Amino acid sequence: MTFKSVSTVATLLAAILACVPLVFGQQPSDQGKGNYVIGSQDVLAISVWDQPDLSGKFTVESDGSFTFPLIGRIAAAGLTLRDLETQLRKRLADGYFKNPQVSVAVEQYRSQRIFVIGEVRSPGAYPLTGNMTLIEALARAGSTTIEASGEAVIVRLPAGKAASAPVLPNQEDSSEVVHVNIRDLQSGQLSQNMALQDGDTIFVPRAETIYVFGQVRNPGAYPLRTRDTTVLQALSLAGGMTERGSTSRIKIVRIVDGKKVELKVKLGDPVQPGDTLIVQERFF
Fold first, then answer.
1. Residues 7-13: what's their mean pLDDT?
2. What is the pLDDT of residue 158?
3. In this predicted model, which residue has the larger pLDDT, 278 or 225?
């Protein structure tokens, strides 16, 4: 597979997301699916080998249980799929069948969900399936837009506290906030591919802006996609300096405490959101 032109972060991320299942040989949601914890309103597909009358789809009711033929009510909420298989196998073996073969899968995920908001193509709530990760969540939301910053922010509420709606960073004092660099994901650092939990909010903020003027080839406003962008990297966004630009005569106009200040900077110095970078003409 080759990509002749990748001009935006969103395009590159989408390409990487598309390749992830090929790399691992299966969809992320299929990995460890037996460890999925069943919840109310989940629809389960239960199959008993050679017993079609016992096989079918069963909805876990609001009390966390459902009715199964021959057995009656069985508590399912809080169990993993494999735990439920074990319970059904034991109950059916108790006076009904010899060594029954039972499999349980989730037909519809309704009890656990995550929220993906911000600069993604299809923001909204998505079911939490299997060992779902950040990459898979971004893929389901259509990947990031061209206005997205270079990071994703994961907001996680304390254990036992349910989220009925997206939670923004700093909205809940007790929430855990994790910043993930999307470029790290692009470069294949899957250690950044965080596993998600029920109620997580993935927020992709809009990129903030810097302005580059003076002796550069393409002056204008540019999105600041990473927090550690340097003056040199900012100049590259604007196509680099012209022949008359001076590397020793670069200044930043920055608002500090409501006042405009001018700072003389070097190529390795960091820039901040809202900065105006000016490359002045060399003397001779």
1. 42
2. 85
3. 278
125 and 178 both lie in a single domain: yes
Largest CA-CA distance found in the chain, in angstroms, rounded: 98
- pLDDT category at 177 given cuts 50, 70, 90 is very high
In the chain, where do the E strands start and end?
Answer: 43-48, 56-59, 65-68, 72-75, 102-108, 113-118, 124-127, 151-156, 176-181, 201-204, 208-214, 220-224, 245-256, 259-264, 276-281
Task: Please check whether residues 134 and 55 belong to one and the same domain.
Answer: no
- Structure confidence by residue, pLDDT tens digits, 230-251: 999 999 999 999 999 999 999 9
Amino acid letter for position 160: G
> Where does the chain have alpha helices with state H?
9-24, 81-93, 134-140, 182-186, 231-237
Q: Hey, CA dihedral for 162, 168, 174, 175, is it positive or negative?
A: positive
Query: What secondary structure letter does DSSP report for 215?
Result: S
Beta bridge partners of residue 144, listed in sequence order? 120
Q: Which residue has the tokens 């002056």?
A: 219
Stretch among 30-39, 106-115, 179-188, 194-203 having the lowest mean pLDDT: 30-39
| Amino acid code (one letter) for 74 | I
The Cβ-side half-sphere exposure at 234, using a 13 Å CA radius, reads 37
Q: CA-CA distance, 160 to 46, in Å (whole number)?
A: 28
Q: Please report whether residue 22 resides in a domain.
A: no
Domain of residue 179, residue span: 112-204
